[in-house]
Amino acid sequence: QVQLVESGGGLVQAGGSLRLSCVDSSNRFPDYAMGWFRQAPGREREFVSGITWNSDRIHYADSVKGRFTTSRDNDKKTLYLQMNSLKPEDTALYSCVRCVGARCTAVVSRGQGTQVTVSL
How far apart are CA 85 and CA 95, in angstroms? Predict the structure, then answer.
């Protein structure tokens, strides 16, 4: 049963912006930290960002710090990732996760992902 559904991916030119969303269809959204991971072809999945249940701690990978912003709306059970100043190296399949802590040291469950492609 798919409980985390991402949307908002697409093709964008370098320097552009995208906003990803992840809707949680379960009732557990407020109970967990949430995060974003990404995986490019031929590369390992990597942590992008994480946010605690009440948004009091947010952590970003160094590669996206200052360009990406994570937020959540517990009433809407939705996680967001605002991506600005996109680079070709940001091209990847982005998936949202339920996780432990703002650094997502453990992943509880994962969505199927949404593709982001950044062209030159």
Answer: 20
**Structure confidence by residue, pLDDT tens digits, 78-119:** 999 999 999 999 999 999 999 999 999 999 999 999 999 999
**Dist CA 24 CA 2 (whole Å):** 9
Average pLDDT, the chain: 96
Measured between alpha carbons, how far is 13 from 87 in angstroms, rounded to an integer? 8
Spell out a b/e string for 51-78, using b for 16 or more CB atoms within 10 Å of the CB, else e. bbeeeeebbbbeebeeebebebeeeebb
Q: For residues 34 and 52, give the distance between their C-alpha atoms in angstroms, rounded to a whole number.
A: 7
